[in-house]
Structures are given as structure tokens and as C-alpha cells.
Design goal:
2 copies of one chain form a homodimer.
Chain A lengths: L5 H8 L3 H9 L7 E2 L5 E2 L2 H15 L4 H12 L6 H34 L9 H7 L10
Antiparallel strand pairs in A: 1-2
Helix pairs in contact in A: 1-3, 5-6
Chain A binds a DNA duplex (30 and 30 nucleotides) through α2.
Chain lengths: ~140, ~140
DNA sequence: CTACATCCTCTAGCGACTAGAGGTGCAAGA
DNA sequence: TCTTGCACCTCTAGTCGCTAGAGGATGTAG
């Protein structure tokens, strides 16, 4: 068999080497077999799992959510209701975060536009921060 | 004089009690005077400063950026160019984050829509996570 | 055989708090 | 005056998801 080193696994999955070891340490990835000299030797399935984790992390899923998703993936006969629920929850989070960021964006734009590039005592950036009541865009 | 306790300061500024102590510990807030019994006694100016910090944190500014903004606020004769630069940088960050979250939202929607609520082996949520190539929306 | 890259384990650090232990201060009611 | 009970104090350690570095072993190419 080909032996996949941790560096190779990292390169193929897009997960960094220390992160691979970290995932093993928190049991998100099964401990792989070792070479004579105690070096990790991964299987192709490990690469897929790492890619799965990486993609899920990119989508902002938390490690515990990913743990659940991986458990589901490991047993394909289960109902996918949990997976669906996790994805939906994440979608709602993302939508909320976008709304909140849009509000921040508007507020930052007002601040930046209002800045006359003069001295601090006329600066709208400082002023708005000092007094939330001056915000044209209330949030939350 | 009225003595403002830490609890009162927290309530008025919207910053939690332990967080106020934390801000003091990292010198974002000057150490207030103490009562006979060693309890903190804040001034109205401290409340304003805490509110400033809180608002800036809500806008996503990092502590070090806030430290700079506070230094500027403390000396109103300085040019506000730094404040402007900090706000602009933050605006660019926020815009980037919004774009990235919109891409994630699209991907999550595809996943959730594709889920037939059956078993895991037909679940699009799991499938898409397992194989990034299936994403209809490439990001980054 | 000698470089040199890559691997190993282990501990500590990041940011911005948050939680908890174990103890003290203080104001109000009985 | 005493007691109840909340708010305060300091200190340490934990959170999340890694990341960095020390100090050493292994593996490979020339």
C-alpha cells in the first residue's frame, strides 16, 4: 500500500499539518496507523474525512456540529433529519449575521463619510462611537 | 460625590461586571479610586468610556484598534486621520465578510433545499459537505 | 555519510472574555 | 444590634479552534 504521510494528507485535504494532529487529538479523526518510526500513515478515507471537515469549517459549522454530521455520515441508514436541522440552524445564523453586518456597514459608512479629515474634536468617527444615540442606524 | 459601584457602571454602560474588571486589567480603562472597603468607585467619565468601548466592540473593532481610538479621543487636537483609517479598514473587513457570508448562505440554501428528508445516503447536506466539487457556488 | 526536510510530542499562547472558588463589604429589615 | 443576602473582591482556569515553538527523531536524496 501507499503510505500517506501527514504532510501529504494536509496537502491533499487542505487542512494544515498541526490542525490534522489537533483533529486527531479531539477524536474528530480516528488515530491512523503508524510507521516503524512512529510516523502517522493515513488512508484515502482519512483524506475525504479531512476534506469534509475543512469544507464544513469553511461553512462556519462548529466542531461539535461537524462531529454530529460525521457520525451521521458514518451511518448512512440514519434519517438525515439531524443533518438537515444542523444546516438549517446554521443558515439562520448566517442570515442573522449578514443582517447585523449590513447594519454595521451602514453605520461605518456614515462615520467615514462624515469625517471631514480635520481634527479629532470634529471627527464624526470618534463622535459616533462616543455617543450611540447619534447613530442614524439603530441595531439589535 | 455619588459613588458609582462596578455593578452600577456595568448597568449604565451595558458592559458586564467581569468585563469592566477585564478592561481595567488590560489598561483600556484607568483603575478607578477605591472605597474604604476596597471597592471600585467610578466617575461618570468612566461610564462614557465604557459605553464608547462597548459600541466600538459591537461594531467589531478589535481591542487594539479601540485603544488607538481612545487615545485619539483623549487628545482632541490630533488629526483624525488615524481614526478615519481604522474605520475605513473595518468597513472593508465588514464588506468582505458580508460577501463571504452571502456565498455561504447560497451554499447552505442549496444544501437545505436539496434535502429530501430521507436517509443519510440520499442527503444532499452530507453529500455536498463530503464533496466540495458539488458546490454550485464556489467561494474564496 | 551527510544534509536537510519532515516528522514526533509537549507545552504555551492567541483574543476577548467567562466561570468558579473562596472570601469580604455593605445596606436593609427584624 | 444582628442577621440575611446580595454585591463586591482577587485569583486561577477554562472557552474555541487552532497556532507557534522547543527539542528531538526519522526518512530521503545526493
Amino acid at each position: 500500500m501507499k503510505k500517506i504521510t501527514i504532510g501529504e494528507a494536509a496537502r491533499r485535504s487542505g487542512v494544515k499539518v498541526p490542525t490534522v494532529r489537533y483533529y486527531e487529538s479531539i477524536c474528530l479523526l480516528a488515530a491512523p496507523s503508524r510507521s516503524e518510526g512512529n510516523q502517522r500513515s493515513f488512508e484515502p478515507a482519512d483524506i475525504s474525512r479531512l476534506a469534509f471537515i475543512r469544507h464544513a469549517r469553511e461553512l462556519g459549522f462548529e466542531i461539535e456540529a461537524i462531529r454530529t454530521l460525521l457520525t451521521l455520515q458514518d451511518d448512512p441508514h440514519q434519517s438525515c433529519a439531524s443533518a438537515d436541522a444542523i444546516a438549517k440552524a446554521r443558515l439562520i445564523e448566517v442570515e442573522q449575521r449578514i443582517r447585523s453586518l449590513m447594519a454595521l456597514k451602514a453605520e461605518l459608512e456614515t462615520m467615514v463619510e462624515g469625517c471631514g479629515h480635520g481634527r479629532v474634536d470634529q471627527c464624526r468617527v470618534i463622535e459616533v462611537l462616543a455617543d450611540h444615540g447619534q447613530c442614524t442606524h439603530a441595531h439589535h
